[in-house]
Amino acid sequence: MTKYKTINPTTLDEALETLNGCNVMPIAGGTDLLVKFYEVYGKSLPKLVVLDGLIPLHEIKTENDRISLGPLVTFSEIENSPELRKAAPQLVQAASVAGSVQIRNRATIGGNIANGSPSGDLIPPLYVLNAELELSSVNGRRSIPIDKFFKGPGITVLEKNELITSISFDKTFENGFFLRLATRKALAISKVSVAANYSMQNGTITNVRIALGAVAPTVIRAPRTEEYLSGKELNDNVLSTAAKLIKEEAKPISDIRSIADYRREMVGVLLKRGLNGIPQSE
Amino acid sequence: METILNTNVEIKVGFKLNGLLYEKSIPANWTLLQLLRDGLGYYGTKCGCEIGECGACTVLLNGQAINSCLVLAPQIEGAEIWTIEGVADSINSLHPVQRIFIEYDAVHCGFCTPGMIMSTIALLLENSSPDENTIKTALAGNLCRCTGYVQIIEAVKKLSGIITEKDLEKFRYSE
Fold it and tell me: Quick one: which of A82, A124, A169, A194 has the fewest CB in 10 Å?
């Protein structure tokens, strides 16, 4: 307990300046960080920069058809936003099934992304929404598409002195879903998840984007399945073929939460359920 | 928020707990749970898993249910906190949520009960007549290892006809 410091900045510049020092780490909701805290950092505690005081980073902003979320927006705020319910249904669905009420009240979208887990529930929806991340540091700002942010499990392109300062995407006026499987409904990390965004025109599906969680070292898109589905009428044959294709696109491993074969099989099942409009709770 | 500089190992935080203002010097790496139990002697908030899985440490932070084991003490500067100790107005007048939990035998060993009650109050603040699914979702973050869930859910259902705004108003957070 002797070499521990926390710093509570109230402006972004101050926060970025502090993050530029050595052995400094930002903390938002703390629902991932504090769980790992003593285990990982017990021997040399980093300085923690408490981000709560950075008011603008808590906002959900809309400009025309573009929505931008501050990194400190919580899962509960996403779940309860009437605007996001319309503009990003898959993101709202993901936010409302992750963790528990207590976790959702604290956990933030920025933390879910920065933590870099392939099973982070908000990430597949952000892939199919083509989200852009703004990363800031004392050296300036850069913008990066979400699918270029992750390098592997827990590994991202975020530099130690950088902060995710905004997550933005176009409102979707199309269909979307997020479905996941976990050991229990609440407080369990996803074994497998599927998010999609698509249009239906005269009975055929177009503009299909599909992302898979927890079945590869990072969240991945399923381009072959997307291409196959595009322009098709959604009938049982098409859905079965799509389910077969997407199983081949998943690259799962067996670990503490599930085995590879089950995950691969369930990717297809979740895709079919989602395209059939079956909600998470059924 | 105050900026904490240099090599201080202790920090000073100001907050409101169960309606009273506090200012307290504490180790900067304490969680809110440690502050409540070890710092202030409020042992009603239970320490279970310390990783946000069990909900035994649930308290209200600015009107919302949170796991106090996953909030760092420096993060509560200026916040409003309610724990189980603040729920009843006096020892002779239990809060309706407490009375109904007793009436419905929604307490077995009692370890999960403070957390269950705080999660129930947070739910009622948002929805004073929740249906069964809403109740189950709201309490999904609170484990009862005696598995007395049926009684707990029945108790919360019963509250929807009984609870009034007057019973809830002190817990409401206004910035």
Answer: A82
Domain boundaries, chain B: 10-86, 96-170
Comparing alpha-carbon positions, the chain B residue that sits nearest to A281 is B133
Residue B118: beta bridge partners?
none
B116: amino acid identity, one letter = M
CB contact under 8 A, A4 and B77: no
Whichever domain contains A89, its CATH number is 3.30.465.10
Same domain, A29 and A77: no
Q: What is the CATH number of domain B96-170?
A: 1.10.150.120
Judged by DSSP in three states, A225 sits in helix
What pLDDT digit, counting tens, does each position of A179-206 carry?
A: 999 988 888 899 999 999 999 998 899 9
Q: Is A105 found in the same domain as A37?
A: no
- Cβ <8 Å between A7 and B4: yes
Distance CA A174, CA B59 (A): 39
CATH number of B10-86: 3.10.20.30
A1 lies in some domain: no
| A202 contacts A211 by C-beta, under 8 angstroms | no
In chain B, what residues touch A103 (CB-CB under 8 Å)?
52, 67, 70, 141
Question: pLDDT tens, B96-124?
Answer: 999 999 999 999 999 999 999 999 999 99
Judging contacts by C-beta atoms under 8 Å, the chain B residues touching residue A53 are 1
Polymer length of chain A: 282
State yes or no: pLDDT of A4 exceeds 60.
no
Cβ contacts of residue A138 below 8 Å, gap of 6+? A16, A17, A19, A20, A161
Domain carrying residue A163: 55-170
Q: Alpha carbon of B121 to those of A60, A278, A281, B48, B96: distances in Å?
A: 27, 32, 25, 20, 10
Shortest CA gap B2–chain A (Å): 6
Number of domains in chain A: 3
